[in-house]
Amino acid sequence: MPAEQSYELIQGPERAFLVGIGIKGSRPLMTTEDSLAELTLLAKTAGMNVVGTTSQNVNHFDPATMIGSGKVEEVREALVAADAHTVIFDDELTPRHQRELEERFGEEIKVLDRSALILDIFAQHARTHEGALQVELAQYEYRLPRLTRQWTHLSRQAGGTSGAVGLRGPGETQLEVDRREIRRRISRLKQELEKVREHRSRHRQQRNRSGIPLVALVGYTNAGKSTLLHALSGADVYIADQLFATLDPTTRRVDLPNGTQILLTDTVGFIQKLPTTLIAAFRATLEEITEADLILEVVDLNEPNASGHIETVEDTLAEIDVPPIPRILVWNKTDKFKGEAIPEVSDPQQYFDIVAISAAKNQGLDKLAAAISRAVSLALYQIKLLIPYERGDLVSQLHEQAGVHQQIAKDTGIELTVRLPANLFEQFKQYRISG
Ligand SMILES: Nc1nc2c(ncn2[C@@H]2O[C@H](COP(=O)(O)OP(=O)(O)OP(=O)(O)O)[C@@H](O)[C@H]2O)c(=O)[nH]1
Ligand SMILES: [Mg+2]
């Protein structure tokens, strides 16, 4: 009976078949094979059983089916042979691809892409109210142009919270609501997130006032960012051999062994082909990075495609408009490293320093601490300023954007002892009286 079949479908792990696509003549950040291996990890993280993979080199994405009609037929046969009811494409399907492929594969097959899979993992891993709001927004934005029979049909099938991969998440029970309703939800979510953002930015201003430099951990997912936060601060954070274990930012105050105090922020990891709807929805979270005084870019030393990972991180930072904040490249997991020497990076002079550590085994952390201290002491200027009384606006600006340690009213103006980042130092140096 059809009802029983669909019940069976959601009982065990979903059996998924993956399709990689290479574009001839292009130079991607990852080979089709590596990308497919990463997609396999994503599918496993989402709780699926990967029963087969295939890849296809094409001259360009076919506008109707992405991989071409012949290959679609081949994949359809492979799905039947492998008893798989889910097919996942490694590149983002356009709404037209989605419709055409659903048509060709038939009712029994669920068609997903890498973006849907990543959104699904995010939905499963969101822990906080803010995280859940951001994922929900990203899911609605992703689904809105793709609302086809699959989403309503399968969400009915999956029902409730048991959920099928790609259809889970905060909004899953709402999938049957029409587009207008989804648009309304999107605008409501945006309003709610705007409030969260304002709250965050007030919080950041208070933190800035403390004058303690903010250091952000950034890197590819699974590089060991949370492990490093734990190693340096003792914070009890979630660490797992999983993609996107961390979604919500955590900030801890750290006293480095040499006495320097910093605030260290751990946040969501990056991956190649991160859905743009997610980047947009996670703006509030990612803004933590743009405000940092220093970035620690964590890279797994054992990753064969480390340069592709570094480039992905750089591209994502550029996409969220991170200013040229000083960076330290942190090669992690030296304990596992079998190679002879640390790999050369293509552009070493862009880093303030390059350090190799093992966050899990507490190796190299003193060297890293020393590099962090040097970087933040150079990045921040501790100076005394005298601001004339008629420039109350500048005093407010300092309270908002710099760390104000002391403020004394003098006859000639307001004397402030502040810690300034380089850009503000330029603006305020004419008022400098010492330091
Ligand atoms: N051998 C070894 N494993 C490490 C080291 N640092 C982290 N790991 C392991 O790498 C995996 C990922 O570590 P996390 O700290 O969760 O990585 P993350 O960068 O926070 O990952 P996401 O939050 O998923 O983006 C875990 O299994 C860690 O135990 C290290 O120095 N050596
Ligand atoms: Mg983490």
What is this structure's SSE topology?
Layout: H1 2-9, E1 15-23, H2 32-45, E2 49-58, H3 69-81, E3 86-89, H4 95-105, E4 110-113, H5 114-125, H6 129-143, H7 149-158, H8 179-209, E5 214-219, H9 225-233, E6 250-255, E7 261-266, H10 276-281, H11 283-290, E8 294-300, H12 306-319, E9 327-332, E10 353-356, H13 365-379, E11 380-387, H14 392-401, E12 403-409, E13 414-421, H15 422-428, E14 432-434
Parallel strand pairs: 1-2, 1-3, 3-4, 5-7, 5-8, 8-9, 9-10
Antiparallel strand pairs: 6-7, 11-13, 11-14, 12-13
The structure holds guanosine-5'-triphosphate (GTP) and magnesium ion (MG).
Report on the structure:
Residues 1-10, 153-162 and 170-174 have low confidence and may be disordered. The protein has 435 residues and is an alpha/beta fold. It has helices spanning 2-9, 32-45, 69-81, 95-105, 114-125, 129-143, 149-158, 179-209, 225-233, 276-281, 283-290, 306-319, 365-379, 392-401, 422-428; strands at residues 15-23, 49-58, 86-89, 110-113, 214-219, 250-255, 261-266, 294-300, 327-332, 353-356, 380-387, 403-409, 414-421, 432-434. The strands form three sheets. Strands 6-7-5-8-9-10 form a six-stranded mixed sheet, with helices on both faces. The protein folds into three domains: 2-127, GTPase HflX, N-terminal domain (Rossmann fold, 3-Layer(aba) Sandwich), CATH 3.40.50; 211-378, P-loop containing nucleotide triphosphate hydrolases (Rossmann fold, 3-Layer(aba) Sandwich); 381-434, 2-Layer Sandwich (Alpha-Beta Plaits). Helix content is 42%, strand content 20%. Helix 12 links the parallel strand 8 and strand 9 (327-332). Residues 219, 221-227, 239-246, 269, 332-333, 335-336, 358-361 line the site of guanosine-5'-triphosphate (GTP).
